[in-house]
Structure formats: structure tokens, C-alpha cells
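Hi R.,

As promised on Friday, here is the backbone we talked about, encoded as C-alpha cells. Could you run it through your design pipeline when you get a chance and send me back a sequence?
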């Protein structure tokens, strides 16, 4: 059986988890249960997506600004073998559904590795509903969340170019889960995708309990969006249902303020990583010094500890006598006293 993949695209907190759960009940395998996280994301594949984003200078919450054809960079190409291995472990045979919002940014890397041209299920949700959900879950400021939605929504549409695609409006799906699941299954079949053993009633039932805690309707919420974001939302709403070959619509430019927010997030993330690297390097130097100190003591036959070492060197023990105080002071300067005692 061909390993035809369905990739679920959409910004974090846009309803991709609910749609993925429904796809599983419609007959699409989601991968080994032990690899699935709470939100139906495959952990080994998620970690690879994070590695890709890190190597491009970003993270899921601080998307990178990669060069053209970034997937051909040597540091990215060297991840292909681990990626193939992770895919084979997660989805060895047959069709499957894979959800990870990071795919909005990384799908070009994965497309040639998937074992078949994927079908994209693109989930669209109002940016202010996404922002409210992220604020509740992660404490993100609304400006940051809407900027992230803008980047992810643009990435989802751009990276789905030419693919068979189904666009799911999350609000419509939850307004009528039964009709939405029947339409989703019919759209997949209309694109030549044949899920087996599915249960549309169970899929709809899985959505009945999903309440839209944060609804953004009417003209008032739109005032909190930039003109570019309002236009992107209109474009996303008007992309239709099913596409034999998704054509990227004319997209507005990225909001300048969103660009500045994302750039600041990347800079902060890179600074944080630099500090972590510095701490790791300092730890490595400290461990090296500890090994050298212990080696020197062993050569002198003084491996029984700093107090015994001081006594044999003529002192009265650490903290006792002039020689002891001198050795204690030297140890404090180098960190040696703490190192040996560990």
C-alpha cells in the first residue's frame, strides 16, 4: 500500500489537534501511540522539526528568516537520514496523518522524504481567537501571537503550493461537527484519498466537546489587526474547500510591526542560546580542571582529599595553620576546593 501522507497545517492553537483527532477517527493512522504527545504530535518528528528551526536560527515561537532554498543547506541536508528513520518508525506503511504546526515552516524539507506527495489539510482560525488561546496557555502578548499567526498562515499557504489540499474553517467545523466531518471525508475521497475503517459519527462526536472558548466575530475585533492581517484573514477565509492543486492566492505583505516583533524574538532566542552555550563551555572547562586536579593529586599520592593533601604538604589541614590557609585560598581562587569535594 502506498504510504500516502496527510499533513495537517495550521498555526498553533488554530484547531489542528481537534482536526487531527477527527482524521484518526475517519480512518487515518496517527502513528505509534507511545510516540504521540497530548496534542497528537509525534515526538521524534517534532524534535526533528525543532532541530531544523534551530539550525535556521529560530524556534516555533520565534520563526527563522531562512535564505532561499534553505533545505539545501549542508546543515539541513545532514538531517535527512535521521528524518527518514523517524518517518519509517512513525509511519512504516500505508496512509497516515501527521500534525505539527511547525510543518507550516518546514514542509519543503519533508516533501521529498514522505514517500508520496502529501495531501494538505489546512486549518484556519481567526487570529484573535488564536491569540486569546495562546495568551491563556503560554502567556503570550496578543501582538506576538498575531504576528506568529501571520507568519504561520502565510507559510502554510505558500508551502502547500501544488498539493492536493482541503481547507477547514475551524469555526464552521465546530458550528456543525457532523456536517463538517462528512464534508471532510468527502473532500478527501474526492481528491483520491481513501481512508479505511473510518467512522464519521465518532469523528463528529470527538468535536462536540470542543468549545470555542475565544470567539472573535463582528467588526470590533478587526480593529485590533493591521490592514495586512485583516487582508490575510480574508484571503484565508476565501480559499475554498478542496483543491486538486493548491494555487497560492495573492498574499498581502507581512505587517512591518510583525516583522520587527519576530526579529526581536529571534534575537532574544539566539542570545539565550549563546548564554546556554557559554554555561555549557564553562561547565566543560570546570570538569576538565577537576580531572586535571584529581590526576595531579593521584600522581602525588594525595588522592585522599584536600585536607589530607594539605597535611602531607606540611600544613595543618585546610583552615588550620599558615600553610593550610594558603592552600585553602589557592583552592578558592581556582574553584579547586569545591571541585575535589564533588
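Update: got your reply. Pasting your designed sequence below so it's all in one thread:
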Amino acid at each position: 500500500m502506498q504510504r500516502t501522507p496527510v499533513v495537517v497545517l495550521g498555526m498553533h492553537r488554530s484547531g489542528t489537534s481537534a482536526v487531527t483527532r477527527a482524521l484518526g477517527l475517519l480512518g487515518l493512522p496517527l502513528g505509534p501511540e507511545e510516540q504521540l504527545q497530548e496534542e497528537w504530535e509525534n515526538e521524534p518528528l517534532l524534535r526533528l522539526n525543532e532541530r531544523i528551526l534551530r539550525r535556521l536560527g529560530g524556534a516555533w515561537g520565534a520563526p527563522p528568516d531562512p535564505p532561499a532554498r534553505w533545505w539545501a543547506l549542508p546543515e539541513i541536508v545532514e538531517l535527512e537520514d535521521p528524518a527518514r528513520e523517524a518517518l519509517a518508525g512513525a509511519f512504516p506503511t500505508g496512509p497516515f496523518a501527521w500534525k505539527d504546526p511547525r510543518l507550516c515552516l518546514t514542509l519543503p524539507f519533508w516533501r521529498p522524504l514522505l514517500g508520496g506527495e502529501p495531501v494538505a489539510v489546512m486549518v484556519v482560525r481567526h487570529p484573535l481567537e488564536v491569540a486569546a488561546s495562546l495568551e491563556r496557555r503560554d502567556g503570550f502578548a496578543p501582538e506576538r501571537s498575531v504576528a506568529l499567526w501571520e507568519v504561520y498562515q502565510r507559510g502554510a499557504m505558500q508551502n502547500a503550493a501544488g498539493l492536493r489540499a482541503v481547507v477547514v474553517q475551524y469555526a464552521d467545523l465546530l458550528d456543525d461537527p457532523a456536517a463538517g466531518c462528512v464534508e471532510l471525508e468527502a473532500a478527501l475521497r474526492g481528491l483520491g484519498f481513501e481512508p479505511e475503517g473510518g467512522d464519521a459519527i465518532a469523528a463528529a462526536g470527538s468535536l462536540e466537546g470542543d468549545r470555542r472558548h475565544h470567539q472573535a466575530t463582528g467588526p470590533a475585533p478587526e480593529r485590533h489587526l493591521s490592514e495586512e492581517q485583516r487582508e490575510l484573514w480574508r484571503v484565508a477565509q476565501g480559499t475554498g474547500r478542496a483543491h486538486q492543486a493548491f494555487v497560492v492566492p495573492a498574499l498581502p505583505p507581512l505587517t512591518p510591526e510583525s516583522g520587527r516583533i519576530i526579529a526581536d524574538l529571534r534575537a532574544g532566542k539566539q542570545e539565550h542560546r549563546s548564554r546556554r552555550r557559554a554555561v555549557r563551555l564553562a561547565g566543560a572547562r570546570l570538569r576538565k580542571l577537576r580531572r586535571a586536579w584529581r590526576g595531579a593529586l593521584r600522581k602525588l599520592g594525595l588522592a585522599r582529599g584536600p585536607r589530607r593533601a594539605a597535611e602531607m604538604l606540611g600544613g595543618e589541614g585546610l583552615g588550620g595553620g599558615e600553610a593550610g590557609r594558603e592552600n585553602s585560598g589557592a583552592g578558592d581562587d581556582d574553584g579547586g576546593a569545591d571541585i575535589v569535594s564533588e
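One thing I noticed while checking it: Residues 272-341 form one domain.

Thanks again,
M.
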